[in-house]
Specification:
558 residues, 19% strand
Length: 558
């Protein structure tokens, strides 16, 4: 495929409410990001994806937008955003904004007009339908639970496949699409480097809006009704042609559920987007999993299961285009808690996970705090949570039979708020995040895990991430570790995830040990040079690699 600048870029995701507060109101802001750009430059970041900072009532933490053209006052001003784009550019960093196109806020002027006048043009920007015998228009279930329809008091209902304050936009309306494209082009003209596109696979709905076979609660899920529904490609192609193709920008789609056989449409050449996140290997959980009924008990996952899903993702995407590789984001608990037993959290396990994903084929994304080795926050009561999904799940889990104490333990492990706690800048008050009262609990681990301390140490997780960044950017290794192919290997070892990156006859072996004991691995390769390990030394003798607990080894092989 044609090589693009974003294929060798290092990306960093910022959750702005929790990154750095510049004015002491307890909430992170755009000026806080500006003040920390040197930190990101030092880490080696090329692209910064910022979660929504548009004007919003914040019912869903900014993913409910009331004005696409205005920065929300709690984050700053439009002038602050202009300055951020300019200051980032001076440091060789591009700003990627979150783009929410499936829905807006019920406080958006379009929706307010539609409520006031059912005959106005904006009414067709949404899905308004009459109910039937006092019931919603159909039995579709919202992603957040309950009906996907909300009554407005005049016999009409509007569709919201997410929260009640997030009415879905009607992409069948060409005027609505044109308004969205104008907005995208406005931000491109401002100089943003691209977009991460939220929930994009839901923009096409079953036009009949017919009810489906009911489940136990009388409602049906939305997979068949409005997830990657046939015909969505026409919308996505039109959007790309009228917006993204105008600029050399990077677009990253949140598109769970797209079958691998359709990946070429999404990220091939020409695809709808530059790359997309694959959720298959990052949504593997031990103990409990989320469902519309609450967190449900499931079986323990195994390393081979995880490895197989990871490598299937890599090999399928390699056939057609490019991917975005990651382990953490604002919607997940910390990766250490997902993949590593509590008793094994530490430098070795954190850097092993880093090596595992960072050298895969695709553009690597670091989520804020991941580069420090942050783990989940201990939660003492349900009142400490802010996330509406967590609070809903806390009630649902109790309906499943858990006591309040058990429910707190369950939601505490899987809550999205684990990733949203304030960034630990130092070991001072409030972890150096704010001089005021933080909007969300500060993870008490900040005393030992914070940026100021880790930047001073050569043996920190932060220092190791810098080594990984340097390895991907080094001209001597950037070929295979950037554009190169990926080949899974050493599949006979159930606690090892290993692969080879190759380009132009140069081969780099990446071995990651998912075990708390010692593992001997017979290498069918000639190891020419060890490029990186997360231990003081690498033991290779007689063709046998002896791996310490959670050791990673990156080596040039013949």
């Amino acid at each position: 495929m044609e090589r693009k600048w974003w294929q060798n870029a290092i990306a960093y995701q910022i959750y702005p409410r929790s990154f750095y507060d510049s004015n002491g109101d307890g909430v992170g802001d755009i000026r806080g990001i500006i003040e920390k750009l040197d930190y990101l430059q030092d880490l080696g970041i090329d692209v910064v994806w910022i979660c929504p900072v548009y004007q919003s009532p914040m019912d869903d933490n900014g993913y409910d937008i009331s004005d696409y053209y205005k920065i929300d006052p709690q984050f700053g001003t439009n002038e602050d955003m202009d300055e951020l784009i300019a200051e980032a550019k001076k440091r060789g960093i591009k700003i990627v904004m979150d783009l929410v196109l499936n829905h807006c806020s019920d406080e958006h002027p379009w929706f307010k007009k539609a409520l006031a006048d059912p005959t106005c043009e904006e009414a067709d920007y949404f899905f308004f339908r009459k109910g039937e015998n006092g019931n919603p228009p159909n039995n579709w279930r919202s992603m957040f639970g309950g009906s996907a329809w909300e009554p407005v008091g005049d016999g009409r209902y509007y569709m919201h496949i997410f929260g009640k304050k997030q009415p879905d936009l009607n992409w069948e309306n060409p005027k609505l699409r044109k308004a969205l494209y104008d907005m995208i082009n406005y931000w491109l003209d401002k100089g943003v480097g691209g977009f991460r596109i939220d929930a994009i696979i839901h923009i096409k709905k079953d036009p009949t809006l017919a009810s489906r076979a009911p489940e136990a609660d009388g409602m049906c899920g939305l997979v068949e009704c409005c997830r990657n529904y046939p015909g969505i490609g026409e919308f996505l192609t039109e959007m790309r042609e009228q917006t993204f193709d105008r600029a050399d920008c990077m677009t990253v789609a949140e598109a769970p559920g797209v079958p691998y056989e359709q990946y070429g449409d999404y990220v091939g050449q020409p695809g709808y987007f530059s790359m997309m996140f694959d959720f298959t290997y990052t949504e593997i959980y031990a103990g409990w999993a989320s469902s519309w009924k609450g967190y449900k008990k499931i079986g323990e996952w195994t390393v081979p299961e995880f490895r197989d899903m990871l490598f299937r993702s890599q090999t399928e995407i390699q056939k057609v285009g490019w991917g975005a590789v990651y382990l953490e984001n604002h919607d997940y608990p910390r990766s250490l808690d997902k993949y590593i037993p509590d008793e094994d959290h530490g430098f070795a396990s954190a850097t092993m996970l880093a090596t595992l994903y960072f050298l895969l084929r695709g553009t690597p994304f670091i989520y804020q705090g991941q580069e420090l080795g942050m783990s989940n926050c201990p939660w003492d009561s349900v009142e400490e949570f802010n996330d509406i999904s967590t609070l809903n799940q806390y009630q649902l889990v109790q309906r499943e039979g858990c006591t309040p104490e058990e429910a707190l333990k369950v939601v505490g492990k899987y809550s999205r708020d684990n990733a949203r706690t304030p960034f630990p800048w130092n070991s001072g008050k409030n972890a150096g995040f704010t001089t005021g009262k933080p909007w969300l609990k500060v993870n008490p681990s900040y005393v030992a895990i914070n940026a100021e301390d880790e930047k001073k140490r050569d043996d920190s997780v932060y220092a190791y991430y810098k080594k990984l960044v340097a390895l991907r950017k080094d001209p001597a290794t950037s070929g295979p570790l950037g554009y190169g192919t990926i080949t899974p290997c050493l599949l006979d070892y159930d606690d090892v995830v290993a692969y080879i990156r190759s380009e132009d006859g140069q081969n780099i072996l990446v071995v990651n040990h998912f075990g708390s004991g010692v593992r001997k691995v017979t290498l069918p390769y000639d190891v020419q040079q060890v490029l990186l390990t997360n231990y003081p030394a690498t033991n290779i003798a007689g063709g046998v690699l002896t791996l310490q607990p959670y050791q990673s080894v990156v080596a040039q092989i013949g």
